[in-house]
Amino acid sequence: MILIYCKTVDDPKEVAGYVCKSNISEENSETKSRVINDGNEDDCWIIERECSDETSAMIYRIGSEVVVIEIDENCASNVIEPLMKKYGFDNVKWLLIK
């Protein structure tokens, strides 16, 4: 698992929506995903693939300016690259957890 930290005041749902939009491929409908609220937490959002209801990432706020994204290491580049494009290299950090 990789934890991605993004410095932003944007809402976690907004960040999740941006990540989803950045990964939509018109040729491959299998990569389409949706953002849903995690019923157990107030401001925690989950990205699921529409075709399998499989959780791809969990996004939540840990401070007034930091959003955390928990994601499998195989999918991390699909999240890190769009975040760096929108928020800048200096505002995105990641940590590999084994």
What does this structure look like?
- The chain is α+β, with helices and mostly antiparallel strands.
- The protein has a single domain (2-96), classed as Double Stranded RNA Binding Domain, CATH 3.30.160.
- It is 23% helix and 38% strand.
- It contains two helices and six strands.
- Strands 2-3-4-5-1-6 form a six-stranded antiparallel β-sheet, with helices on one face.
- The model has no long low-confidence stretch (mean pLDDT 84).
Distance, first to last CA? 7 Å
Q: What name does CATH use for the topology?
A: Double Stranded RNA Binding Domain
Number of helices: 2
Spatial ordering of strands, largest sheet: 2-3-4-5-1-6
The profile of the biggest β sheet is: 6 strands, antiparallel
Number of domains: 1
Q: Return the string of H and E elements.
A: EHEEEEHE
How many whole angstroms does the radius of gyration measure?
13 Å
Spatial shape: globular
A few lines on this structure:
By secondary structure, the chain is an alpha+beta fold. It is built from two helices and six strands, in the order βαββββαβ.
Name a few traits of the molecule:
single chain; 98 residues; alpha+beta; Double Stranded RNA Binding Domain; 6-stranded antiparallel sheet; 2 helices; 6 strands; 23% helix; globular
List the helices and strands and how they pair.
Layout (H helix, E strand, L loop, with lengths): L1 E6 L4 H11 L10 E5 L6 E6 L5 E9 L2 E6 L4 H12 L4 E5 L2
Antiparallel strand pairs: 1-5, 1-6, 2-3, 3-4, 4-5
